[in-house]
Amino acid sequence: MKIMKTPIFAFIASISLTFFSSAQAENICEYVVNKHIEVVTASELEIKSIRPHSNAITAYEITLLQKNLTNRYLSLKKLLAIYENQAEGCSPSLGRATAIYDFSLVGNSVFADTHLRRVFKGFSKFNSYQLKDFVSNYKKYTANSYIEETLNLIIKENIELPKDIVLKTSDKDYDPNLYKISDRAINGASSTVAGVARVWGFISDKTMWREGRLKDNQAAKELLLKNLRPLDLIYETRNFTLSNYTIPGQWGHVGVWLGSKEELIALGVWDKEYFKAFREKVEAGFQIVEVRKEGINYQKLDTFINLDEIAITRIRNALDKAETIYSELTQQTMKTYDFKFDSRSLAKITCAELIAFSYGDIKWRETKTLFQYSLSPDDLAILSVEQPEVSEFVLFLKGQKDSTEFLNLGLDEWKAVLTAQKEKKALDQKKKAKEKEDRREREEFQALYR
């Protein structure tokens, strides 16, 4: 995984490369503790910047939090390996004290916050993030009995702790394993939804009664190829499948256009190690990467175009960040489909989440459901209307019934289809409010003549 160029990640990366070499002038035991305290301090500052708006945390901030905690945990593990093995004569008690200090801060900054705790649970289950044993170690090092045992050991060994490390037992128990009733209820309800969605998703995807109106349309394909650029977002509408009617909004799916070999060579990403997963596919003509119910999938434009409608939007500065985005996309492709449709969970993803977790610091619109937040293709598309400085409308083609002709629709039509549902919802709310007011007036009038 490529490390984001933020201060803490650059700092941690430098530590991993020079963990021992800079310790020549001072005791290795003190050095690794002091360096880890610096990592923890920088980490906590970043978490502190997120907490005030944790209820509205963005996909970008979720990925930053994951990298933050992963790198911090790996730094702690290196420290513990030195102390537990008593390398260089390091006393185990100082390593234990540092771990208690670190995990206690995580308890107060992450697990004590409802939103951050749930976000953590969302990505801690993904093996590649190396946090699988974080919870078990957290419980071990924050248990009052362990803290008391460590304090006694420090007194016995006459160890002086760094001024930053203060150990004390606590009556708080920030358990990351769903310690609140509300967490359990939400997890149970969303799991039930996921089970139903999994079965229904596979059935509805396979239920179709005709071919798409743009299928095998060479003119439409040529127009698409003329307009497509690497990292463009490509949307689909299939009015001939049952699944299309279970997804709110205009667009039922979205994927990423990887680009041509020539374009990718020019961008400088073709020979990169992180692009290895995509090279074979692009050379074979599979230039669209997407997430379907079955998981990660690659398509050729020839097969993807079996649609009624297709559209393209472009994140304006995407090519300036091409290396970072392709690297992040590679990480996402190792994940399975998120049948819970939880946009705050980084362990599993939907088609829209593939993009949201890869394209950097963008505030995507989300849809609030009863239990969580979700992200739909429409939520990505509407960005080109609400924030045109961030996302650009490129193309919108609509196939015609019983004809090889298609409509090449412009920005006005694009805005109309994306805002139609929003306007309908607003009208429905206005109608309900008026009905409620009329009912109240009738009841007041009737009360006067009783």
Write a short abstract of this structure.
With 450 residues, the protein is α+β, with helices and mostly antiparallel strands. The chain contains 17 helices and 9 strands. It has helices spanning 7-17, 28-50, 59-84, 92-111, 114-124, 134-142, 144-157, 181-206, 218-227, 261-267, 276-283, 301-304, 322-332, 351-356, 377-381, 383-386, 411-448; strands at 233-237, 253-257, 288-292, 295-299, 309-315, 367-368, 373-374, 391-399, 406-409.
Q: What is the fold's blueprint, element by element?
A:
Elements: H1 7-17, H2 28-50, H3 59-84, H4 92-111, H5 114-124, H6 134-142, H7 144-157, H8 181-206, H9 218-227, E1 233-237, E2 253-257, H10 261-267, H11 276-283, E3 288-292, E4 295-299, H12 301-304, E5 309-315, H13 322-332, H14 351-356, E6 367-368, E7 373-374, H15 377-381, H16 383-386, E8 391-399, E9 406-409, H17 411-448
Helix pairs in contact: 1-2, 1-3, 2-3, 2-4, 3-4, 4-6, 4-7
